[in-house]
Amino acid sequence: MRTRSVLALAGTATALALAVATPASADSAVLTTGSAGGTAAAVGDTLTAPLASGTTATLYSSATGTSGVSCTSSQFTASVTANPSAPGTATESVSGHTFDAGSCTSNVTGVTGVSSITVDNLPYTAAVASDGSLTVSPASGSTIQTTVKLKTLLGSITCVYQAPSLAGKTDNADSSISFTNQHFTKSSGSSLCFASGYFTAKYAPVTDGGARVYVN
Fold it and tell me: What is the pLDDT of residues 131-142, one digit of tens each?
């Protein structure tokens, strides 16, 4: 009797340990709210995220440099279009990606300020996989495009940058999405517009109706 009791207790402890160690149940959705393995985000739900506190969104002229444009206020908005069981890939329609020009500065020689930064050709499609990888793609036949209007000593200039897609990473620790040195190429603009742009930003927390979103 005593041996069976000890084995039963050991089995219970093991089961509890496995439950704690495994954040998402086998039948959870890729995107859940409240916790990993929590309530599935419904198709049609709106997801939003500002820049992570204390961080900046940057578009620099090189992957290792610090010359370009930097903003302290930005936000994206997306709606869930598919959220299958994990493991799998959820999709979202990115309908908004904004930058507050008042929070943006530039240290490019000859540039005195930032008038606006506009993300064009929306909506984009975001695919979020269970491994945490994220891919943002434009509509067929289109490109991801950002238009940057800068104030210079000689007046206003417009710089247009394009990319075929963006790759990011999600992190459940802070419900974040991060982009690092995503390469854009200048498609039009004056010689003051740098030839390439490298976009880096971290958005957190991603929320659905105020509840944090997790990837399973």
Answer: 999 999 999 999
User: Is residue 106 a contact partner of residue 99, using CB atoms and an 8 Å limit?
Assistant: no
Number of separate helices (H) and strands (E) present in the chain: 1, 18
pTM of the model: 0.86
For residue 16, the tally of other CB atoms under 10 A from its CB is 10
**Rg (the chain; Cα; Å):** 22
Structure token digits, residue 99:
């930058």
Q: Where does residue 7 rank: exposed (0-12), middle (13-18), buried (19+ CB within 10 A)?
A: exposed
Task: Report the alpha-carbon distance of residue 188 to residue 160 in Å, rounded.
Answer: 5
Q: Give the residue from 124, 213, 112, 105 showing the smallest Cα distance to 164.
A: 124
Distance between CA atoms of 160 and 1, rounded to whole angstroms? Answer: 77
